[in-house]
Specification:
CATH topology of the largest domain: Butyryl-CoA Dehydrogenase, subunit A, domain 3
Number of helices: 10
Number of strands: 10
CATH architecture of the largest domain: Up-down Bundle
Helix content: 40-55%
Strand content: 15-25%
CATH superfamily of the largest domain: Butyryl-CoA Dehydrogenase, subunit A, domain 3
Radius of gyration: 21 Å
């Protein structure tokens, strides 16, 4: 099996690595401390073609493929997880519109997402009472002649205060005739739409530079042309988008873990106890070895899922396997990084405490670890 990257993949990876090391990493601590939405960094990523990596060139994207996207995400996340998740969701929104949108929708939104004319894209599926269960969705979209009227609320919306376009799911069929997810449709709502209200930013444990808000739709009118895909066909769009999104979050988790390992190796070489570097002690060596094994295994799972998606093969199970393993590996690795650093690791002076806080949410968003295990098990039992 040949795992060698092609020239495009190498170029994207190196471009992301250079920009992340030179520009993003020096700003990461400040972004976290001040909960700063990194507009300057996102503009830089747009200039490099990294906000629409898997969107066709004809729509303003790079057209570099899923593997390239995963590699770029790993590099950006190793420098700043907040910047990476904003990049991930914007890429996902662009892909969704490119795949399911009409020609007019693609032409209107994809170039703006790719170029940073829209500061971000947002994915609005979760609700206060409907997270892992989209069938419990309460937001509605009512057909009113030449418009749709949206009413309801969404929760945990990444980049919601900055998004130029939201991909929004709402119930269009009555529960009596369209139970569960069968009556859910998908809409494109532009930022600033009348009747769209942005809630307060959440005060989060980690990825604090990523804006996370609630949304309220209060008789929010959008044109009939705002429907994305088929009427009542929104659940299929959501699941396909989330499958791809899980590759992005796998990549984010891998990047965070790599940063924690690199910091731990450097610290183990420098920190001395009992007259020698702590890296000379077997207890520390075994921690570092296990961290490296987990990260490389996560990377291989991620590359497999990305390769399958890029080559139009079934990848849902593999994306879930990658996501659950990479995210839980990141939590373990960053926890061990704190342990290796000892008391210093528990302070803001060292980046490993930020990596640990950032890693924790990767087991939750884009589908919890529990949901990933359900997906995997169902594929085995079907």
């Amino acid at each position: 099996m040949d795992l060698t990257l092609n020239e495009t993949q190498k170029l994207v990876q190196q471009t992301a690595r250079d920009f992340s090391a030179r520009v993003i990493a020096p700003a990461a601590s400040d972004i976290d401390k001040h909960e700063r939405f990194p507009e300057d960094l996102l503009k830089g990523l747009a200039d490099l073609g990294l906000l629409a990596v898997n969107v066709p060139e004809a729509l303003g994207g790079s057209g570099a493929g899923v593997v390239s996207y995963a590699l770029a995400m790993q590099e950006v996340a190793s420098a700043c997880a907040s910047t990476a998740v904003t990049m991930a969701v914007t890429n996902m929104v662009g892909e969704v519109i490119a795949k399911f949108g009409t020609d007019a929708q693609k032409a209107l939104h994809c170039p703006k997402l790719a170029s940073f004319e829209y500061k971000a894209g947002s994915f609005a599926l979760s609700e206060p009472d409907a997270g892992s269960d989209p069938g419990g969705m309460a937001t509605t979209a009512r057909d009113d002649g030449d418009t749709w009227v949206l009413d309801g609320a969404k929760q945990w919306i990444t980049s919601g205060a900055h998004a130029g376009v939201f991909v929004v799911w709402a119930r269009t069929g009555p529960r009596e005739t369209h139970p569960g997810t069968r009556g859910v449709s998908c809409f494109l709502v532009e930022g600033g739409a009348k009747g769209l209200k942005i809630g307060r930013a959440e005060d989060k444990l980690g990825i604090r530079g990523s804006n996370t808000v609630a949304l309220e739709f209060d008789a929010c009118r959008v044109p009939k042309s705002a429907l994305l895909g088929q009427l009542h066909g929104g659940f299929k769009i959501a699941m396909m988008a989330l499958d791809g999104g899980r590759i992005g979050i796998s990549s984010q988790a891998i990047g965070i873990a790599r940063a924690a390992l690199a910091a731990s190796v450097a610290y183990a070489k420098e920190r001395k106890q009992f007259g020698k570097p702590i890296g000379d002690f077997q207890a520390i060596q075994w921690k570092l070895a296990d961290m490296k094994v987990g990260i490389d295994a996560a990377h291989l799972l991620c590359m497999r899922a990305a390769y399958l998606k890029e080559n139009d093969k079934l990848f849902s199970r593999e994306a879930s396997m990658s996501k659950v393993f990479a995210s839980e590996t990141a939590v373990r690795v960053t926890n061990e990084a704190i342990q290796i650093h000892g008391g210093y690791g528990y302070t803001r002076e060292f980046a490993v405490e930020r990596h640990m806080r950032d890693a924790r949410v990767t087991t939750i968003y884009e589908g919890t670890s529990e949901v990933q295990r359900i997906v995997i098990a169902r594929s085995l039992l079907s």
